[in-house]
TrEMBL record:
Residues of the SWIM-type domain: 753-793
Protein's UniProt name: SWIM-type domain-containing protein
Organism for this UniProt entry: Ficus carica (Common fig)
Annotated region (Disordered), positions in chain: 146-278, 835-863
Keywords associated with the record: Metal-binding, Zinc, Zinc-finger
Length: 887
């Protein structure tokens, strides 16, 4: 029989209120009901909810809470998550979900629904809002930069350049001056050093293929900086300016130009007056612009392929008396018009009330002039000469404006966040015929990501506030932020109460220390401390973000760990042997043990094995190393290392430099760990990879939310377990039980027993050991011990490690990590109340380039040796045969 439908009570526009018991209630807002079935697809559900609430598809987040858990929400992001949610509520008729997102549906979302598939969901009648107990996992995506801020900056710069003409009456905008302004343009062709040669800067993103485009309402700012220039270029530009002033006539290169040219540094007074004068007007204009106003008259066709879109742009400017809502709409249409007709123009008179442009090619007759018409309250074209006499020469030297490049790149990144600069440059050349170099695209990517995700630099200023709120939401947590005297970021330590409690109550006294790069522009390093739960799952204990990986930061990280733990139990730490953390661990934790990571040993052995290889070949090195590490007897350890020596003597010599007492079970005294041969840091690497281009605030939120989801998921999974041990250990115990059949037990005393089978072993139940050496390292009774328990009527589970019991496992995941409810508001407003919030990004030098073959960055940053050129004629060095001077 088909499973019944599940009714989702979809709630949004409300707010969360914290109750006295730590749970959260959702008050206010509205609610709608949607039916789903096991066949419902996540994309269909997400699209339906976006249309229902009028929210942007890409920004939409759907969250729900598990039955019986009223503290933390679980995020739905794909079909698998939706199915799990349905299964969790299999015994329920309804389930509460909470919707968040930005207002405004994106047109590309409509394309997600295929014409040939069934959505599997049905919208039920609208229901009254209800107060549901829930927790809020807030999206960390920052909102866009306010439009009014961009507009203010734009016209500040515009008015600055108008001053450079030396005309104090340029602020007058009467329509009667239109003809005079046009004449001034013609007269000043050779004199105006501040004229800006402009290739149109399109604000509306234009994708490849049939993907829809998201209009950038905030991109109306036409003022852009020269992304492609270097300090040397700046000096050259000044020299060219000087040459023009002295009478030299050159055709200037068209860089990433603004609408109005460079800022004049010689008119600070006029700049201040202009800024005050235009601020009010700009805010009024920005306040009057709606979503539809931010799109040009051609914006309705942005879901077309680029070639058809460009064809439509050709009609964006029709001629005299064409009207626009504002100067911003006129500029946008003109920019697209110029791209479509493949020419470059320059705007000279360019402010909120007028815009005068001409082709940059010297002597070309193309002109356009538009200004504000107070009668019709529109921005109208007053005159235009559509004829080009330059033969397309202006397009050859065209360099696109920065904001146009950024808007196009931003659209590319929305579809694929990890696009490479070369890929983006090829797509722009293919779609628009605009050729960009690598530097231009690379800088454009940085600006586009800042608009999509927020500023990297400003995110550091929000860290003190975020740390304070995380500590308030999670009492008992250890969260510490440190900066230097210059208020630059140095270190951040995070260990939530749920993690500290879980480690002490349910995990083995075993911690893996790892370091991985956050892959950001500031090269921060993520330090992690991870334990193992009873089912050998990685359990996060603590995180630290530091400006660089060195001994001082590792020592500080270990000291924070020590202050977080109240237990006096000896802890075993495991790390990469090449990081040289052994002495630091033993200094900070006096009664601790230290071992070398088996995963890193295998990787380092592979990297240090140059050959030649004999016998079983290079592939056998890893097999023998794992066998040597897992050997419980010294003779087995020696046997496998001798096998390595037969295959590659160089690999053997390297391995012998690594102290065996820190990695082989035969000599190691701490908590057994050699069965963990995978990369413990892999989970964190995958988490960071998802947001590698995001600011630090979002990366911290990902660490918190992913850890929270991990805890909730494992808590839910363990709630249905009914055995005494976790599943993996229960299975191993079952295997040992089967091996115990047929073994003969001889009693020596109440605690000593002799067990006979293929071989004879002695079991000591008091010391929990067997001469087969299989009991103590694993924490589970061996087959010989199980035979003894069967004969003596003892309970097998009394002799299993307590860390393997389901109770301990549930203790480890009994606490939850609470979210910071106000995070979204913080990122949107960019405001903090703390006076100490001015934390700056770290000043960290770029790490040495990584050698792909040797992975030098993981081995202490060794520099590759320079190849020595040897002459084939004289056998000398430093030259070759062609340049040899020997006779």
């Amino acid at each position: 029989m088909a499973r019944p439908k599940l009714i989702l009570i979809c709630q949004s526009l409300g707010e969360f209120v914290t109750n006295n018991d730590g749970t959260l209630s959702y008050n206010g807002g509205e609610a709608h009901a949607v039916d789903i079935t096991p066949d419902t697809l996540f994309d269909d559900l997400k699209l339906k909810l976006a249309e229902m609430w009028n929210l942007e598809y890409e920004s939409l987040s759907i969250k729900y809470f598990l039955p019986g858990n009223r503290r933390t929400l679980i995020t739905m992001a794909n079909d698998k998550d939706l199915k799990r949610m349905y299964d969790f509520h299999a015994s329920s008729v309804t389930a509460d979900v909470f919707i968040q997102g930005k207002v405004g549906i994106l047109r590309q979302a409509v394309n997600l629904r295929g014409t040939g598939r069934t959505s599997g969901l049905k919208v039920a009648e609208t229901v009254m809002p209800i107060a549901a107990v829930a927790a809020s996992l807030v999206s960390m995506r920052p909102s866009s930069v306010p439009a009014d801020a961009n507009l203010s900056n734009a016209d500040d710069d515009n008015n600055d350049v108008d001053d450079s003409d030396g005309d104090d009456d340029d602020d007058k905008d009467d329509d009667d001056d239109d003809d005079d302004d046009e004449d001034d343009d013609d007269d000043d062709d050779d004199d105006d050093d501040d004229d800006d040669y402009k290739h149109p800067s399109v604000k509306t993103s234009t994708p490849t293929g049939s993907k829809a485009v998201t209009p950038d309402a905030n991109a109306n700012d036409s003022i852009t900086s020269d992304m492609g220039s270097t300090p040397a270029d700046t000096v050259k530009k000044r020299r060219r300016d000087a040459s023009r002033k002295s009478g030299a006539r050159h055709h200037p290169s068209v860089g990433f130009a603004s609408d109005v040219g460079e800022k004049s540094k010689s008119t600070p007074r006029r700049k201040k007056i202009s800024k005050r004068k235009t601020a009010k007007v700009l805010h009024e204009v920005a306040d009057g612009l709606g979503n539809s106003d931010a799109v040009s008259l051609l914006g309705s066709s942005t879901d077309l392929p680029p070639e058809k879109l460009v064809a439509l742009w050709k009609n964006g400017i029709t001629g005299v008396d064409q009207e626009f809502k504002s100067v911003y709409e006129f500029r946008e249409a003109l920019q697209k018009y110029a791209i479509a007709h493949r020419f470059t123009y320059r705007l000279k008179k360019n402010d909120t009330n007028r815009a005068s442009g001409r082709c940059v090619a010297e002597g070309c007759s193309w002109r356009i002039y538009a200004s504000w018409d107070s009668t019709s309250e529109t921005f109208r074209i007053k005159s235009m000469n559509k004829t080009h006499t330059c033969g397309g020469e202006s397009w050859k030297a065209a360099h696109p404006a920065k904001n146009w490049v950024v808007s196009i790149i931003k659209d590319r990144l929305q579809g694929s966040p990890h696009h490479k600069p070369k890929e983006i440059a090829k797509s722009i050349l293919r779609d628009f015929g605009v050729e960009l170099n690598y530097t231009q695209v690379w800088r454009g990517i940085g600006d586009a990501r800042a608009q999509l995700q927020g500023s990297y630099k400003e995110a550091y200023g929000q860290l003190p506030w975020l740390c304070e709120k995380m500590a308030e939401a999670n009492p008992g947590s250890l969260i510490k932020l440190f900066s230097n005297d210059e208020k630059r970021f140095q270190r951040l330590f995070l260990s939530f109460h749920a993690l500290i409690h879980g480690f002490q109550m349910g995990c083995r006294p075993l911690i893996f220390l790892e370091a991985t790069s956050l892959k950001s522009k500031y090269h921060e390093i993520l330090l992690t401390a991870s334990a193992l739960d009873g089912d050998d799952g990685i359990f996060p204990v603590a995180f630290a973000i530091v400006d660089t990986e060195n001994s001082d930061n590792w020592r500080w990280f270990l000291e924070q760990l020590r202050s977080a733990f109240s237990t006096s139990q000896a802890i075993t730490f495991v790390s990469d042997s090449e990081k040289v953390l052994k002495n630091l661990v033993l200094e900070v934790f006096e009664n601790a043990h230290h071992g070398y990571s088996i995963y890193h040993l295998c990787e380092n052995l592979k990297r240090n094995s140059k050959g030649p290889f004999y016998g079983d070949g290079k592939s056998s090195l890893r097999i023998n190393l794992l066998a040597a590490a897992d050997a419980v007897r010294l003779n087995f350890y020696k046997m496998h290392t001798e096998q390595i020596k037969r295959v590659c003597s160089q690999a053997y010599d390297w391995l012998m430099q690594i102290e065996p007492e820190y990695w082989t079970s035969a000599l190691f005294k701490g908590e057994p760990y050699n069965h963990i041969t995978g990369n413990v840091a892999e989970s964190y690497i995958n988490w960071i990879e998802e947001v590698r281009e995001a600011p630090i605030i979002q990366k911290i939120e990902v660490l918190r939310s992913k850890t929270s989801e991990l805890i909730n998921s494992r808590r839910t999974d363990s709630s249905i377990w009914s055995a005494n041990l976790v599943p993996s250990k229960e299975e191993k115990l079952r295997e040992q039980r089967n091996k115990a059949h047929g073994l003969k037990v001889l009693f020596s005393s109440e605690t000593l027993f002799e067990v006979q089978g293929d071989s004879t072993h002695v079991v000591d139940t008091d010391k929990r050991s067997c001469t087969c050496q299989a009991w103590k390292p694993t924490g589970l009774p061996c087959s010989h011990a199980i035979a003894v328990f069967s004969c003596t009527g003892r309970n097998i589970y009394d002799y299993c490690s307590r860390y393997f019991t389901i109770d301990s496992y549930r203790f480890a995941y009994s606490e939850s990590i609470n979210p910071v409810l106000a995070t979204c508001k913080l990122l949107a407003d960019g405001e903090t109340d703390s006076e100490t919030s001015h934390v700056l990004p770290p000043l960290t030098a770029r790490p040495p380039a990584q050698n792909k073959n040797k992975k030098e960055s993981e081995t202490g940053g060794k520099v590759k040796k320079t190849r020595v050129v040897t002459c084939a004629k004289c056998k000398g060095t430093g030259h070759n045969k062609a340049t040899c001077k020997a006779e």
